[in-house]
Design goal:
Number of helices: 22
Low-confidence stretches: none
Distance between the termini: 152 Å
Largest sheet: 6 strands, antiparallel
Radius of gyration: 54 Å
Strand content: 15-25%
Strand order of the largest sheet: 5-4-3-8-7-6
Number of strands: 20
Shape: rod-shaped
Length: about 725
């Protein structure tokens, strides 16, 4: 039997050594935790009890160690159970210590006054039998039973089954030593309490070191998964579902939900272990627990949603099924994009502040992942849209009959559709990256200076070119970034030119046919006016004047048409012309008209103005038409300016007025034949609509350019540029 006791004491000592190691690890992890100090006190007292039980079998004087260790272990276990159960607040804990101190002092006083002694027997076989005094027995019994009651009543607060069972077994071991002598004799009580202390130490290690480490590992895994979600190009729905699942698994929660902000409300977009029928449930911003979290932008914890939440429920059946709930805002670029909820049922354990802190760490990663997935979806949609547009454009360019050619800044062909390849007589595949200058004949290219000038001013240039007896109108426009270059679109206008030629021929023939009858009418009208003047009354004279006015207008129209056809029929005879002298003559001829209409006229012609190569009569007609228009459309009290100055190798002539102005939407039509601006201010002004078209035709044949700037109510400026002669006219 003695050998059994030795083995029991040895095993107890071994277990206590392991428990002491647990104490050292716990204190090294956090020496400020008072619960670890209580556990350390328990281990020390059990060691004293065990040493006392071992030495008392040899030395009777060692019995005091048994009493000290046993009593101290009972008190330490009670304090540990009370601390874990949180039955005492910080303010009452000192009172408990004082009460225990006075109980111990009372016991010592009673023992000294009444001579209370403990029974102690050591048999010849080495077995030890001892029994505490009646006072000690009742005192220890109260403390041990209080420990058992506190432990079993607060298992949920202790939050560890192993820890609660260790405290229970420890109390049972002490209770057996107190009440059952056989267990005291064979040191069974010592091995039970040593094993219980080992369980308590293991429970502390598992709860405070092992589980947090595993939790941190799991946290890192979740962070990694969320980080992978951030960089993965997956649909937003998959990212949301993955985050909801990871959050629920991390906290071993009964469910999770993700709300996303849509305008002024939150919409339930993803759930885990929650009915998917709730998806799409919406909350006004600021309403519900999720709405409150989104509005304040801070994490919140509700220990018991079922009992504590008084607002709008976050989803159907929430008030009946939710227990503890953590809500964290999903913030991206300082803006709340949604809310993540982790939910336990009302029968499950509550969340801790550490859980909420961990949720707050995960939330930013989740917000970035969600926002990135949204951006990826937008990018994917944009790519699909661009691809579709590209396919449509390629289909259009491939199927169109108009030749299209695109070139880069190095004049290499980027693209040519089949129509362009057929026109150039080169297979389409061979045109890619081929130099333009070696592919197209130089005479088919536009004038470089005119091209650059037009591109610089209006980003486009239009010119006419003849290819294989077909006439094309070539529109050249600048390509915008990221591809820098130009694109040319050719429109076949051969048929249109033929129609225009026939139309011009018909108009010319008609005008010629009208000229002779009109001349006859005017002659007979003149005779009629001379012979009938003595007998005409006032009304008849008015009628005759009206007829003369209309005949004169008709003559002017026919003359304008013939002049225009004459200009367009071929190049006029050119000769060096003194432009300054021509402009001064035009200015002098209009001064009297301007004065009679009370319009200020001013001519500003630069000295040393370049001479030009021109048909002087046609050029004089251009200036006269522009000045005549300015007079007709400028009301009394207005002003007209005629300016001219040199500009490098060209001459610029400007006619400016303060007239009614031309609407912007019709400015590109003013040079069309027979076009007239229709407005209330100009409806009484006579005209044929040919003057400006004649101006443009003459300037085009002189290799010049004409354009205008106008603003309603401010006035109009017409500009004419003509190439200058290097050598002046010799008189």
């Amino acid at each position: 039997m003695a050998s059994f006791v030795i083995v029991a004491l040895f095993l107890s000592g071994l277990l206590l050594i392991l428990s002491s190691s647990s104490v050292l690890l716990l204190l090294w992890n956090n020496a400020r935790q008072d619960v670890y100090l209580y556990f350390s006190f328990q281990i020390v007292t059990v060691i004293v009890w065990l040493f006392g039980s071992s030495f008392a079998r040899t030395f009777e004087q060692a019995f005091w160690m048994i009493e000290l260790g046993f009593g101290g272990a009972a008190i330490a276990t009670y304090l540990l159970a009370a601390r874990l159960s949180e039955i005492y607040s910080a303010s009452t804990r000192a009172t408990v210590f004082v009460a225990i101190f006075f109980i111990i002092m009372f016991r010592l006083i009673i023992s000294s006054l009444f001579g209370v002694q403990n029974n102690f027997q050591l048999t010849e076989s080495g077995l030890l039998n001892y029994q505490f005094s009646t006072i000690d027995t009742y005192l220890y019994l109260v403390i041990i039973l209080a420990t058992l009651w506190i432990t079993r009543q607060n298992i949920r607060k202790i939050n560890s089954n192993i820890l609660a069972n260790g405290l229970t077994f420890f109390a049972i071991g002490q209770l057996s030593a107190l009440l059952l002598s056989q267990l005291r004799v064979f040191a069974v009580s010592e091995i039970i309490t040593a094993f219980s202390a080992f369980l308590i130490g293991y429970a502390f290690l598992q709860r405070d070191i092992m589980t947090p480490l595993l939790g941190r590992t799991r946290q890192l895994e979740v962070m990694r998964d969320v980080g992978l979600a951030m960089t993965s190009e997956v649909p937003q729905g998959d990212v949301l579902n993955n985050i909801a699942k990871q959050a629920a698994e991390l906290f071993e929660a009964d469910g999770s939900a993700i709300y996303l902000k849509r305008s002024n409300e939150l919409v339930l977009e993803a759930v885990d272990t929650i009915p998917k029928a709730f998806l799409g449930y919406s909350l006004p911003l600021g309403e519900g627990f999720a709405g409150m979290v989104a509005e304040i932008g801070q994490s919140r914890l509700i220990p018991n949603y079922r009992r504590e939440w008084k607002g709008i429920p976050d989803m159907p059946l929430a008030l009946d099924s939710f227990g503890a709930v953590i809500g964290v805002p999903l913030i991206f670029r300082e803006e709340v994009v949604g809310v993540l909820l982790v939910i336990n049922g009302w029968t499950n354990e509550p969340f801790s502040d550490d859980d909420m802190q961990l949720m707050s760490l995960i939330a930013p990663q989740a917000a970035v992942a969600i926002s990135n997935s949204f951006l990826f979806e937008q990018e994917r949609a944009l790519k699909d849209e661009v691809t579709s547009a590209k396919q449509q454009l390629e289909a259009f360019l491939t199927s169109t009959e108009n030749p299209v050619i695109a070139i880069d800044r190095n004049l290499s062909i980027l693209f040519a559709n089949p129509a362009a390849a057929g026109l150039l007589g080169v297979p389409q595949a061979e045109l890619q990256n081929k130099p333009l200058l070696t592919t197209i004949q130089p005479q088919l290219l536009p004038n470089p200076r005119q091209l650059l000038r037009d591109i610089h001013r209006s980003n486009s240039h239009v010119y006419e070119v003849e290819i294989k007896e077909q006439f094309y109108l070539c529109h050249i426009a600048r390509l915008v970034a990221p591809i820098e270059g130009w694109v040319a679109v050719l429109n076949n206008v051969t048929r249109l030119k033929e129609i225009d030629r026939l139309k011009s021929q018909m108009v010319r023939m008609t005008s010629h046919d009208l000229k002779n009858p009109l001349f006859s009418i005017m002659t007979y009208m003149e005779l009629l006016e001379e012979d009938g003047a003595p007998v005409f009354d006032k009304d008849m004279t008015h009628y005759v004047q009206a007829i003369w006015k209309q005949l004169t207008r008709m003559e002017r129209i026919i003359k304008g048409i013939l002049d225009l056809e004459k200009v367009q029929s071929g190049a006029p005879p050119m000769s060096p012309t003194d432009l300054r002298k021509l402009l001064e003559s035009c200015a002098h001829s209009i001064e009297d008209q301007a004065h009679s209409r009370r319009i200020a006229f001013e001519a500003d012609i630069e000295d040393g103005l370049h001479d030009v190569l021109a048909d002087a009569s046609q050029l004089e007609q251009v200036v006269s038409n522009l000045l005549d228009n300015a007079l007709k459309y400028t009301p009394a009290g207005g002003s007209i300016w005629l300016r001219a100055h040199n500009l490098e190798d060209a001459v610029i002539v400007e006619v400016e007025d303060t007239g009614h102005g031309i609407p912007r939407e019709v400015q590109n039509q003013v040079f069309d034949r027979f076009f007239r601006v229709k407005s209330t201010q100009t409806e009484t002004v006579g005209g044929s609509g040919i003057g400006l078209s004649l101006v443009k035709a003459i300037i085009d044949h002189h290799k010049g350019r004409v354009w205008l700037k106008s603003e309603i109510g401010v006035g109009t400026s017409f500009y004419v540029t003509l190439p200058a002669l290097r050598e002046p006219v010799k008189i």
